[in-house]
Amino acid sequence: MAAILIFGTWPYMIIFSTNLGDFTVELEMERAPVSSKNFLKYCQDGFYEGTIFHRVIKGFMVQGGGLTAKMKEKPTRDPIANEANKGLNNVLGTLAMARTDAPHSATGQFFINVADNDFLDHAAMTNAGWGYAVFAKVTAGMDVIQQMERVKTTTMAGHEDVPREPIIVEKVTIVDEKPVA
Questions:
Q1: How many domains does the chain divide into?
Q2: 38: exposed, middle or buried (C-beta count within 10 Å: 0-12, 13-18, 19+)?
Q3: What residues does 138 pair with on adjacent strands?
Q4: Are 53 and 63 contacting, i.e. CB atoms less than 8 angstroms apart?
Q5: CATH value at residue 113
Q6: pTM of the predicted model over 0.85
């Protein structure tokens, strides 16, 4: 097993097994507790299993966590508070909460930055300046993320940048799991 990079208060590691391979993320529980606990709860509930990475933009990000292979949106819990103002930056290999134009609208969808995307960072307490909350980092399997980034995309069911061949989350494994409060 690869060395563990301590990113959060204690190392919650989550392994995503996809049809392209596995990648591991570690949560930042100290500086992004709301987003981290939200993501962890979705993982514990098995929510992500069977979802796809439905939006892939080369040089930007890969997004998943909410749609099935038939492009049907899964029902989610209520939106969470945006923690983009906690000092974590949208850099290569970090995970951030996906949301609508409303700053505090994130639920289950997330994206993985495949570049340094500082324009997504918090800039102001305004709708336009809130940014996207980083809550985790890829600690192993970045080659799988890079493989995702290179897939051919199309438009499907009203969504752009959809992989032509679905990238499916087959299994989510939580390592060193501790209960969410």
A1: 1
A2: buried
A3: 25
A4: yes
A5: 2.40.100.10
A6: yes
